[in-house]
Amino acid sequence: MRTSERKIIELKMIRDIAKTYNTLDYVPQLRTLLSSVISEKKIKKLSKRGLHKEINRLLLESYEGEQVLKYRLFQEFKKKDLVAAYEMKVRNSRVDFLTVNGHTTSYEIKSSLDNLYKLAKQSSDYLSAFELNNIVVHEKHLAKCLEIIPKNFGVIAVTKDSHQVIRKPIFNRGFDARTQISLLSKKELLKGFNMNVPDTILEAFDASQINMIFKNLLKIRYAKRWGFIKQHANSIFPIDIQFFFTKNVCPEIIYS
User: Fold this and answer.
1) Tell me, what's the pLDDT at 68?
2) Comparing C-alpha atoms, which of 33, 68, 29, 61 is closest to residue 241?
3) I need a surface site. Which of 27, 59, 73, 150 has the fewest CB within 10 A?
4) Distance between CA 256 and CA 254 in Å, rounded?
5) Taking the model in full, what pTM does it have?
6) Backbone torsions φ then ψ of 33, nearest 5 degrees
7) Which of 109, 101, 112 is nearest to 77 (CA)?
């Protein structure tokens, strides 16, 4: 078998691992996943933690899906004075990554394995809620992406090992107060506005006030979860970062 053919097969196996891998997998499942790319003799020597570590190493080095890019975003922002979140629902979309400090800033990921079918709708949804918006896009999608996204979106082109800021986002003044309110729970509305009926809030507060309270409430919502993964960053394997953001369970419980 030629080297190029072998490489294609190996990449397919690694993609299959990425699609199947779950942070909550038990030892037999982890061993089965690795059996396609690693010898049985080596697999038997690995502990549960070792199996997780090996899968994460393989994916981080050879896989180009969104999990890897989500980890790279975590690495970029973990030391900055802000709160961040993964997978926040916005209308009919779900933004991949969001930061909140002085501004709300969204990051939609389009990896080399993604398509752009939903990008126009996603862009519109994010403009309805956030002040700054970005697309993190693999270079193979860059030209098409630039045709789809609004002019005020920032663009970050990525390859397997690097990234380049093509343009920075321009402040969006078109966010919609009613949409922002709809993204908050009744409890959050009561905490921020001392009332939880959307129409009443819209009558009592102007758009700039709602936007400011919206940002504060998002920071409160996500502060604990973001703080958890920052605190345990050295114990969490890269591909598992979103799982621990969502669950906030001690990594040692999962890996041992």
Assistant:
1) 95
2) 68
3) 27
4) 6
5) 0.94
6) -60, -45
7) 101
